[in-house]
Amino acid sequence: MSKETANKSVMLVEDEDSIAIALRFLLEREGYEVSRVADGKSAIEEIKRRAPDLVLLDVMLPGASGYEVCQSIRLNSALDDVKIMMITARASATERRKGLALGADAFLGKPFSNTEVKAEARRLLSEKALGDD
After folding, report:
1. 16, 42, 70, 80 - which has most CB atoms within 10 Å?
2. CA distance linking residue 63 with residue 111, whole number of Å
3. How far apart are CA 45 and CA 22, in angstroms?
4. From 3.20.180.20, 1.20.1250.20, 3.40.50.2300, 3.40.630.30, which CATH number describes the 9-131 domain?
5. 8 — pLDDT class (breaks 50, 70, 90)
6. Do the Cβ atoms of 108 and 120 come closer than 8 Å?
7. pTM, two decimal places
């Protein structure tokens, strides 16, 4: 665990257990504190309650889409510091533009590599640390 990852919280919003288990394992090995929510509606409430440093957000979710969750985060000024990485199997240029337009900080297509996820998480959370001055 590095100083950059210590005490950083990541909320994983993913309804597929196999993907969630793999991402949790990957992120915990990097030293992040990881929690998980499996549907969009619960995610909105949990994100408001916990204000994690980073949200890893699937687009296709039961309850509310990842786009709705992303928009809800960005409309809440108390969550301005929360970084959002969207992940989806539908990673067309249009989907990417939509996610970024709604306020996502990064957008990864499935299948993604572990290296990509780790690098993006590190980048987003180091940007957050720089902005905390």
Report:
1. 70
2. 23
3. 24
4. 3.40.50.2300
5. very high
6. yes
7. 0.91
